[in-house]
Amino acid sequence: MNMIVPLSSLQPGERGVVVDIRGGPNFRNKLVAVGLTPGVTLHVIEAHPYGPMVLFVGGTRLAIGRGMASRVFVRRL
Amino acid sequence: MAMKVVALAGNPNVGKTTVFNALTGMRQHVGNWPGVTVEKKEGVFEYKGERFLVVDLPGTYSLTAHSIDELVARNFLLNGNPDVIVNIVDATSILRNLFLTMEIFDMGLKNVVIALNKMDLAEKRGIKIDIRKMAETLGVPVVPMSAKEGVGIEELKETVYNVAHGKVRPNPVTPTYDPDVEREIRHISMALSQTELTERYPVRWLAIKLLQRDDEVMKLVLRYLGEEKLKEIMGHIGEAEAKYGRAMDLILASQKYEFIDNLMHRFIRYTKSEGINLTDQLDRLLIHPLYGFLALGIVFYVVFKFVFAIGLPLQGVLDDSFSAFGEWLAPHIASETLRGLLVDGIIGGVGAVLSFFPLVFLLFLSLSVLEDVGYMARVAVLMEKLMRKFGLPGKAVIPLILGLGCNVPAVMATRTLDEERDRLVAMFVNPFIPCSARLSVISFISGAFFAKHHALVAVSVYLLAIVVALLSARFVSTFLVKGEETPFVIELPDYLIPSWKTVLLHSWERSKEFVQKAGTVILFGSIFIWYLSNYPLPVGTGSSYAEKIGMFFEPYMKLMSLDWKAAVSLLFGIIAKENVISTYGILYGSADALVNAMTPLQAYVLAVVTTLYIPCIATIAAIRAESNWRWAAIVTVYMIFVASLVGITVWHLGSVLGY
Ligand SMILES: Nc1nc2c(ncn2[C@@H]2O[C@H](COP(=O)(O)OP(=O)(O)OP(=O)(O)O)[C@@H](O)[C@H]2O)c(=O)[nH]1
Asked: What does the pLDDT read at residue B573?
């Protein structure tokens, strides 16, 4: 089943497609600008329970805070 | 004929600085953009006998109104009339980089050249790019480069020259969106059209920015077309968003990425899949919640040692040479006034400025290396959570630690922070961190007055200072600086061997800038204090201005059990904190007399106040250089206030507890 889940619940090695970003304009802009936008595919490289997550998106490696990752919604691939 | 202007635009970390240096060599000038503390670099290159002025725009991911950097870049593109725009694109992350390119195309700018950098890295990763097709698809010239190796620089100059002279006429693609969005863009364009506003700015760009609710463009509409019109347009956008059930800026962004994705397929091929590489393996360790911190500790230790173990002795040597020079010169000057002014004031002052040079240079060298290797981003990731509790980003831990050595380079290090707001907070609290000069005061007092527990006493002063610094950071970031905390997402570049040329040039420029900017303040400060301590009669006679000032403040000092001599010593401490004890010694006749004159509690209060009371003059100069006079003044006043408050509290608390 292709479920929509917060990015923060993905495990290392999993892939997903961003479907929505929930947050204010500043927040959205910041994510969009670094390439996290609805429609893109991402690949989780690392996720420490209390630390940030490391992702691969469009040729770039990004670190993103847990709090932010929980406001990005993805469809698991 | 005026020089043609070339603007360099690109994402952070694409190699903009490397390209800039390769183009201009040493012919560059670093300053600030008018009105803001965003760095502005300009340089000149020559091609076929013609000189071109290169303006380096701040590195940004997009051109919204959400950050000063982006606004600065965008305003220059719109209003600065550059003849050619060189958009530097990282070949290893084309999708994200072309987002900025599309924002530039959205502005209706034509004379764009793409410098496709890091081709060497792209090749290694199996990314195949058909340059001719890429240029054709995007409608602008594309120059493949490896700036680090100097590959492609001449071709870039040639292309810029050709575009500037109309020999090549770029015709950039217009980013287009879904029919629904296009309809909204048309609708808003109609509402705006045929006004003074649309003569000054491309109407399609205005419409797109309004759809994104861009503050600055909304202000423009308000100014040119009035409130009615703005309300009408924004009302329409509100309706549209309700219809699509999603914020318009998100819709535009994802369609822009889709547009880029469609174009990209025509000229790019990935022959290897993105696998886990060496960087990822290193990161398992370096941003691990446990090992990462251990590694961080080691890196800090090495940097700290490197900067201060080499820098402080060099500083001493320079200081001594200037003193020796002064002493040698003194007998040759007949006039006593002139001798004092020259030897104590000017030579002392210039010596103070130059003696900081090695420290500042070594610091910038270390920071550039950490940055270029790619480690700085990992520091940010590791420390983010902890530092955020005090209203600072993770990277701000670096200036704090450096402050333990010397606050001057530490304040300069705040410029590695990306947001103006964070820089202001970080330099505000830095002077609270006890530098090595204050260590000499703290260890003298703890040694002389607390024979048994001297280590404990010294540590307690440090802890107190660090707590004050962190609480102040919380306080300032909540009440004094504007701007919301920035959400945490950061690019983690591949680890790389740094380019020594870039690193050295960078450090040299920064250190030179420090001497230029902070030099005059330190010099005049030294002359002023020299004046106060020698007129009308020298200190020790009881009638110098310095002593009069001290006596004037005596009632205030009494609140924390200190006398006028403390006030005078603290005044001299503004030049350099280690002066506090030596001045005290002079006023009491000897250091022993000083020890007999004070109770341990009074001495402890003195240690605390010396640690907290005011940044030394070089630090004030550094803060001013990194921000402005107003901020330097606010820091100074705040510190005097906090030092008094803590001093008085410690005295009363200590007395009540019976010390
Ligand atoms: N492999 C490779 N690396 C490069 C090339 N050009 C620059 N770099 C590296 O990319 C990193 C960033 O380079 P800078 O010139 O500092 O980039 P910048 O765009 O000015 O970065 P910011 O100062 O963060 O805005 C450095 O580590 C450079 O050594 C290149 O052509 N190939």
From this structure: 85
Helix (H) or strand (E) holding B144: strand B142-144
Q: What is the pLDDT of residues B398-417, one digit of tens each?
A: 888 888 878 888 898 888 78
Q: What is the average pLDDT across B377-398?
A: 87
> Residue B294: pLDDT above 70?
yes
Contact B489 A31 (CB under 8 A): yes
Question: Measured between alpha carbons, how far is A57 from A43 in angstroms, rounded to an integer?
Answer: 7
Minimal-distance CA residue of chain A relative to B293: A51
- Determine the distance in angstroms separating the CA of B95 from the nearest CA of chain A, rounded to an integer: 6
CATH (residue range A4-76):
2.30.30.90
pTM here is 0.73
Six-digit token pair at B301? 């230790």
**What are the residues facing B269 on neighbouring strands?**
B128
User: In chain B, what percentage of residues exceed pLDDT 70?
Assistant: 95
* Residue carrying structure tokens 């020999």: B167
Q: Which atom of ligand 1 is nearest to the CA of B117?
A: 31
B139 and B185 in a single domain? The answer is no
Ligand 1, atom 9: closest residue by C-alpha: B15
**Inter-residue long-range contacts of B501-507, CB under 8 Å, 24+ positions, other chains counted:** B501/B21, B502/B17, B502/B18, B502/B21, B502/B148, B502/B368, B502/B372, B503/B365, B503/B368, B503/B369, B503/B372, B504/B365, B505/B21, B505/B26, B506/B17, B506/B364, B506/B368, B507/B361, B507/B364, B507/B365, B507/B368
* A73 touching chain B per CB within 8 A: no
Do both B467 and B403 map to the same domain? yes
What does pLDDT average to over chain B? 86
Same domain, B516 and B614: yes
Give the closest residue (by CA) to ligand 1 atom 14: B15
Backbone angles phi, psi at B490, to 5 degrees: -145, 145
With both helix axes pointing from N to C terminus, report the angle between B153-164 and B16-24 in degrees, rounded to the nearest 10.
Answer: 80
Model confidence at B325, in pLDDT bands (50, 70, 90)?
A: confident
Residues B30 and B153 in one domain: yes
Instruction: Decide if pLDDT at B615 tops 80.
Output: yes
Supply the residue whose CA is at minimum distance from atom 2 of ligand 1: B118
Total domain count for chain B?
Answer: 3
Per-residue model confidence as pLDDT tens digits over B542-560: 778 888 888 888 898 889 8
- Closest residue (by CA) to atom 32 of ligand 1? B118
The per-residue pLDDT for range B477-520, each reduced to its tens digit, is 888 776 666 678 888 888 888 888 878 887 887 788 777 766 77
- Nearest CB to A60: which of B96, B253, B385? B96
Whether B367 shows a pLDDT value over 70: the answer reads yes
pLDDT of residue B634: 94
- Based on the domain organization, do B75 and B141 belong to the same domain? yes
Which residues on B lie below 8 Å from A30 (Cβ)? 66, 486-487, 489
Q: Measured between CB atoms, does A62 come within 8 Å of chain B?
A: yes
User: According to DSSP H, which parts of chain A are helical?
Assistant: 25-33, 66-69
Q: Are residues B159 and B185 in the same domain?
A: no
Strand partners, B386: none
Size of interface A-B (CB pairs under 8 A): 131
Write out the residue range of the structural domain in which residue B43 sits.
4-164
State the pLDDT at residue B639: 94
Q: Which residues of B touch A57 (CB under 8 A)?
A: 96
B523 shares a domain with B590: yes
Query: What mean pLDDT comes out for the span B119-127?
Result: 89
CA distances from B85 to B17, B26, B109, B587 (A): 15, 21, 9, 64
- Of the given ranges (B26-35, B94-103, B242-251, B611-620), which has the lowest mean pLDDT? B26-35
Please tell me the distance between residue B14's alpha carbon and the centre of ligand 1 in angstroms.
5
Each domain of chain A, given as residue ranges in start order, spans 4-76
